[in-house]
Amino acid sequence: MESGKRGFLALLPLLFSFLFYFDFSKKLPSSDCSLLPQNHYWIASKRIVTPNGTISGAVEIKQGRIVSIVAEENWHVNSWFTTVVNYGEAVVMPGFIDVHAHLDDPGRTEWEGFPSGTKAAAAGGVTTLVDMPLNSAPSTVSEEALKLKVQAAEGRVYVDVGFWGGLVPENAENASSLERLLNAGVLGLKSFMVPSGINDFPMTTSSHIKEALPTLARYKRPLLVHAEVLVDLDGKLEVENGVDNARSYSTYLKTRPASMEEAAINQLITLTKETRAGGSAEGAHLHIVHLSDARTSLNLIKEAKQRGDSITVETCPHYLAFAAEDIPDGDTRFKCAPPIRDAANKEKLWEALLDGDIDMLSSDHSPAVPEMKLLDEGDFLKAWGGISSLQFVLPATWTYGRKYGITFEQLASWWSEKPAKLAGLTTKGAIAVGNQADIVVWEPDVEFDLDNDHPVHMKHPSISAYMGSRLSGKVLATFVRGNLVYKEGNHASHACALPILHR
Fold this sequence. Notes:
The protein is an alpha/beta fold. It contains 13 helices and 19 strands. The strands form three sheets. Strands 1, 2, 3, 4, 5, 15, 16, 17 and 18 form a nine-stranded mixed β-sheet that branches. It has a six-stranded parallel β-sheet with strand order 9-10-11-12-13-14, with helices on both faces. Helix 8 packs parallel to helix 9 (296-306). Residues 1-5 and 7-28 have low confidence and may be disordered.
């Protein structure tokens, strides 16, 4: 007994020496930035989604990066000396990357804003957002406007945020202006082929897009297009005389027929042939955002892909979750453009997504102040359009996709891998060695009601079409660059994620 005591005392100088020389500041992240104050730890689970399939094992994270991935039978770690966070049967997968979100910061933060929007993203398992160039004020159509965006994001984002720039007639016709915007660090450009509803973001024609494609080809960055053009309607709406009821969703649907998408995509695929090898815009890439027409419009895109055109397409969970026939009169929470179409179209969208004809998913989170949705009046023709959804995209995709047998690997492809590729985020999008430790942990079988008692971090939960739903898929934890930024209802006390610029 006495000899044991002497041995312990002999070790004390060594222990104090270790404590004196060990620089904890280099090993522990600020507790303000992370709910897990370790820079080196393991995440273990029976279900870890990797590019090579779902495994039982552990992921080693050090200094914000994934440094190893080990199957359970090969994993031996002494948890006495190493922090292990064991999530049991919960799913561990790459954090979602939402390439289509409107955070409206700066200028319209009463609509959303970086702090509230990125808190909602973290609570929903989204670890990276790419912010649209509108509806902030000013719109991100110049180098100067991008600087304002970055300044507004710094120190105010809980998940990483990149930025699309805006393609508008003014810069489409001015290569040097466009180059300055691209050199400033936008990840690509976005254009509207119909009026956007924002005065400083005018629509572009196919001629403007043609002008811009060679510049985008040199920079190897994508052009995202809102693909609708105005067409002559078969019959004039006569709401004033009571023939059509503005509180009926079917009335709004008549104003945005599928032929608008078809006509726009028809114009675009006359340009995408130049993106093929040897074409004048080889290296450029066209991406169709929020496709809602699963019939002719989708077939045109499929044919362009088969010809070798560089083109991809996304749709959104609200087109996969809802059908026009089920939207209640006056419920303007469901108004968006392109509109939600009929149930048969929804089934075709699911079929195209499962077959790989639709490449990826995005939220198109498009909030506004509640009074702009005219919820009391219920006028679909006058209300502001946009589905507010950012926090719910993981459980919504999972809940509505389960009946189609979707897999965790498909979720990772639609929401992580392919969005990362589109935005050029080479160290994100997969649980892979060397990648940033952007990870979501969630329980697929846990159900919850989106009611007034559910903690929602978007600025205006009341305008979301998902409120009142029962969903499956509870997010337990969200890691951004290794920082545990969200854990079971709580966020890190400081916003320490980063703006992303193309360099």
